[in-house]
Amino acid sequence: MNQPSTTQHPEPDLTATQRDQEEESVHRALEGYYRAGKPPWDTGVTPSELVALVEGHSALPPGRALELGCGTGTNAIYLARHGWEVTAVDLIDRAVDQAREKAEAAGAAVRLLHGDATRLDELDAPGPFDLFFDLSCYCGVPLHRRDAYAAGLTHRAAPGARLLMFGYGPEPLGNPMPEVTSWAAGVTADELRARFAGWELLDVTPGTNSVPTFWFTLRRDA
Ligand SMILES: C[S@@+](CC[C@H](N)C(=O)[O-])C[C@H]1O[C@@H](n2cnc3c(N)ncnc32)[C@H](O)[C@@H]1O
Asked: Which UniProt keywords apply (predicted)?
């Protein structure tokens, strides 16, 4: 299914200082959520879309997976328990610390890395990966870092690798944090097609949220 066509936000022409400020405000906002306690997205429940990919009738065979923006690790642990060799990355150290504790308690072998999904070269995550999973990370990444995100995954993708991504559409919430300007952009199918050269957008399925959300499935060319 195709995502309804939406107005693309033009990429703002930011100075280097404005780019740094944008990244800092994203970091600050995310850190605030984790510092305040349990962030609203931390449901502890693995979404059925990932379960279908891992356990469904045409499940992928287990291989290497990289989770971008893993939060407290619920889905990285799920993948590890289902035979995947998992590396998981998050920008916020508190999230990674909690994910480590959860993985240890669950007896799940997950490589947890504190770092930036748009700067994978700075991390020890060489791949190649057969599956990338992103539950609401990319849609919050500042626009000027998104090409680097796509390049990092493309560089680490095994032939035919999948990317399963959940994201918010543009401005679904009227941007509750106006200081984080990039959060109004969300993610669209058109954007992913344009940014992920060498990948095919296989599927776009609307989420069940009260605001526009989408599950995107992409496949790296063989
Ligand atoms: C909406 S939360 C979802 C967390 C987790 N996927 C879940 O569903 O519980 C987005 C996560 O992505 C992380 N994140 C945002 N930008 C990131 C980046 N550039 N690199 C790595 N993680 C990032 C945030 O710290 C946060 O944990």
From this structure: Methyltransferase, S-adenosyl-L-methionine, Transferase
pLDDT of residue 5: 45
Is 47 near ligand 1, meaning CB less than 6 Å away?
Answer: no
Taking only the tens place, the pLDDT of each residue in 24-74 is 999 999 999 999 999 999 999 999 999 999 999 999 999 999 999 999 999
- Using one digit for the tens of pLDDT, what is the confidence trace for 193-221? 999 999 999 999 999 988 889 999 999 99
Asked if residue 42 has its Cβ within 6 Å of ligand 1, the reply is: yes
User: What angle, 0 to 180 degrees and rounded to 10, lies between the N-to-C axes of helices 93-106 and 74-81?
Assistant: 30
> If you compute the radius of gyration of the chain from its CA atoms, what whole number of angstroms results?
16
Q: Which residues pair with 114 in a beta bridge?
A: 90
* Strands of the chain, DSSP E: 64-68, 85-90, 110-114, 129-135, 157-168, 199-206, 213-220
CA 207 to ligand 1 centroid distance, Å: 18
d(CA 102, CA 99): 5
Write the CATH number of the domain with boundaries 48-220: 3.40.50.150
CA of 55 relative to ligand 1 center, distance in Å: 24
Question: In Å, what is the CA distance from 124 to each residue of 79, 116, 205?
Answer: 19, 12, 32
